[in-house]
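User: Quick one: structure for sequence A, then sequence B.

Assistant: Sequence A:
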Amino acid sequence: MMRNIFFLSLVTSFINQVGAETLSFSSGESQNSLIELYTSEGCSSCPPADEFLGQFTNSNELWTKYIPLAFHVDYWDYLGWKDVFASAEFSNRQRKHKLQGNLSSVYTPGFVVNGKEWAGFFKAWRSLPETDKTPGELTVSIDRHQVNIQFPSAQSKLNYNLAIVGIGLTTGVKAGENAGRKLPHDFVVLNHQNTTGQASVNLDLPLIVRHQPEQFALVAWITDPSTLSPIQAVGGYLPAGTIKTL
């Protein structure tokens, strides 16, 4: 009973705070680069890739050119450490990239940039691929607990994705290949949902997530329903108190 009262109190507090103002994010007309990292706390070669993604927290092109996402997979959990951020959904997403020809194989750390495998991380000169596409503006507006995503350029139905990501997370790993290490994480996908629509869709902002990062951000992107390759992406930091944690 007390747990239910606590939950309702968090929800009420959330609605009161978010209802105070409407938040909005815009991608601009040019295509932003959606950077997907498939990673695991159970993989000894993943921490350098996590650190590479984390550098975007200091980039003035974050959200205006680069949209980073870290999907933690669960297929290395058997090595002795269960990744606290891992999800079978994210492992399946990576396998879908492989089935669609976007990846040569399923591995970690694995990068997909704008729907294509990027092996540049493993080279001395880590230059991300450029894009010169201008698909149009993708906008996100948050009013209370509802998220409206609009893509006026849509000519047919699209798949709309919404992710809540955490920046400034740390895990003390006690077993497996990274035993004894403290691993920093940024842009970790903590909640992901999607729906199909044409020029506009509405999704509910998740009221509560399990983990407490230093900062939350929101990322939205659109794809054709037949592929995971993004058409456009947008993101931005969320004000303190927008998302609650248990």
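Sequence B:
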Amino acid sequence: MAEGQTRSRPLWQQVLEDLERRIEVGDIVDRFPTDKELTEQYGVSRHTVREAVRRLRARGLVDRHRGRGSFLNEERLTQPLGGIYSLFRAVEERGLEQRSEVLALEHDRDPEVAERLGLPPRTELVRIERLRYAGDEPLALDQVWLPLDLGRHLLDADLTRTALYDELQERAGVRLTAVDESLEPVIPDDDARELLQLDPDEALLRVWRLGWSGDRPVECRVTLIRGQRFLYTNSWRADREPGATTTFSDADAARL
């Protein structure tokens, strides 16, 4: 390739498209070439290569491991919209070890959360904060608030390798029957960037969830998920009635 730009496509885009082709046909497997190797292969500047690779990483195709270089990302987790997502299940279905580092398991007060749970602002709650892992890599930062009468049953639970909803059902006799969720991209703060070992240009997905058991809101959750490791999908069918709701089984709500 000659350094510069064609009439319609900048050089980094040409490199990007060729790298995507090589990944698709299996020419690049496992270890991803270094910037130096790519500059030699394509005869372009390091700046051009870095822009193409940055966009591959933003799409989740390449994952950088500190001290080991870059690799094709074969561990991206997929979750369809319209049901209760489960990090626990999504990780284990990919054959990866799931575990959590419990950062907080304590009594807490939060007026905004209390309001979401339909409680007075100064109501005491139980807050659970966990750093979630998929294999050796941090995947998400998860905070859950529960009403005290339910959350107190979990204060002595070992949540490092078990699903919160399993413990909630077993210890407090509560099973989620519905959720309301919103999803938005966010720029991480310094604390989240350090905990999740984010790359400089890596963004997060923030999921707000209000979980219900019957007519009672029983869980308020905020999860920050690494955008490069998690993919949400959706589908539409013409024969589906407008406004129809998505149903889910007990298994869908069983783990998180």
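Residues 2-7, 76-84, 240-256 have pLDDT under 50 and may be disordered. The longest strand covers residues 98-108.

User: Thanks, that's what I needed.
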